[in-house]
# Entry
Amino acid sequence: MNSSVLLIEQKDGIFYLTINRPDALNALNKDVFDALEQFFKEKKEDFGVKGVIITGSGTKAFVAGADIKEFIHLDAVAGAALSKRGQDIFFMIENFHAPVVAAVNGFALGGGCELTMACHLRIAGEHARFGQPEVNLGLVPGYGGSQRLVQNIGKTRALKMLLTGDMITSAQALDWGLVNEVVPSGEEIVASEALLNKITTKGPLAIQKTISLVNDYFNKTVDGFESEYKDFGYTLGSEDAKEGAAAFIEKRKPSFKGK
Ligand code: DAK
# Structure
């Protein structure tokens, strides 16, 4: 599976997705959404996938937003339907069983900032810029930005970003907790790999369940504490937990099987 707007490579269970529309600063159009949806649908139950890194083509932009030239002609009904579809695809990313890292190599604006927030972790290059400039176009965010920005940086800061449309630097994003790490420009992928390589040494079931438990905190229809004690029991009864404890006692590295 490879489309020209989404380049997909794989090495040792880590998938590298590059949004590849450099002439439009990697703006999200229908083809990009189709390709993202296809990838995350196909890999939903593929536990051979240990992690995913999403980045943008070139050095200037991660993703400079939804493709303004594509959505401008839509009416209210079509716009709402498209917004819902984009949200659903971003939920697939947020709920993916393995960690997804956004390697933010430049502008992450509007839909681009929203895409980074659908990922579990964010590594930003020093030159990266984040913003939700929808108000400049007379719009509100359509792919979860009004919700996930508040989750990530709090209401006060989120409202300022959303109401002014101003961009923030990667240093500011780090200070506000929007990204996990800032690295020299050009080192976003290497740093994302290092982070994933650390995570992939842990128990795969525990990683899966941790992602889902943290997501439960924000899911108004479930009780995260209830999920936690159930998942605790589930992981405690797993072969991985027995292997983890045995490895500790025998002073060796665990060999987890994801069972
Ligand atoms: N869409 C389409 N083309 C884009 C683009 C975008 N979001 N961003 C940049 N480009 C294109 C430019 O048009 C230009 O193309 P040419 O003119 O060369 O053909 C090329 O990329 C290079 O851009 P610039 O010449 O502007 O480059 P600069 O370095 O001067 O400026 C910039 C970089 C990132 C500051 C600037 O390009 C910029 O402000 N871009 C737009 C940022 C933005 O407002 N993005 C949209 C945010 S709103 C929806 C759901 C969600 C949304 C919308 C609808 N529905 C469900 C319907 C979400 C909307 C958003 O994301």
About this structure: The mean pLDDT is 97. The radius of gyration is 19 Å. The longest strand covers residues 6-11.
